[in-house]
Specification:
Distance between the termini: 24 Å
Order of helices and strands: HEHEEHEH
Structural class: alpha+beta
Number of strands: 4
CATH topology: Alpha-Beta Plaits
CATH architecture: 2-Layer Sandwich
Strand order of the largest sheet: 2-3-1-4
Helix content: 25-40%
CATH class: Alpha Beta
Number of domains: 1
Strand content: 35-45%
Length: about 110
């Protein structure tokens, strides 16, 4: 049982992507869903502060949180880079744990 949980933890990931606006986050989400690379996307407004080209910036952005499994990460990264408006998009992979039923749903929707 413990081994099965560890395997799920290694396989499941969230992908954290910042976007310029809600339209861009929805466009990326839709493309990833249509290609069955993700099972679900959550979209949140955020305030960001960062250094860019030697200046400190403050912006309103949107976070796209995509739920998927590890095997799709590289393809997701390529897809996002193709359509993202940022010169250097934030695409972060976060390992997560989930209940068995939810994990099975992720697997079903991304295969």
């Amino acid at each position: 049982m413990y081994l099965n949980l560890m395997i799920l933890w290694v396989i499941m990931i969230l992908i954290y992507i910042t976007c310029k606006d809600k339209a861009e986050a929805k466009k990326i989400s839709k493309q990833l869903l249509e290609k069955r690379l993700i099972a679900c996307a959550n979209i949140f407004p955020i305030e960001s502060m960062y250094r860019w080209k030697d200046k400190i910036k403050e912006d309103n952005e949107i976070v796209l949180l995509a739920k998927t499994n590890k095997k799709h990460y590289e393809e997701i990264e390529k897809e996002v880079k193709k359509i993202h408006s940022y010169e250097i998009p934030c695409i972060m992979k976060i390992k997560v744990e989930a209940n068995k039923e939810y994990y099975q749903w992720i697997e079903k929707e991304t295969s």
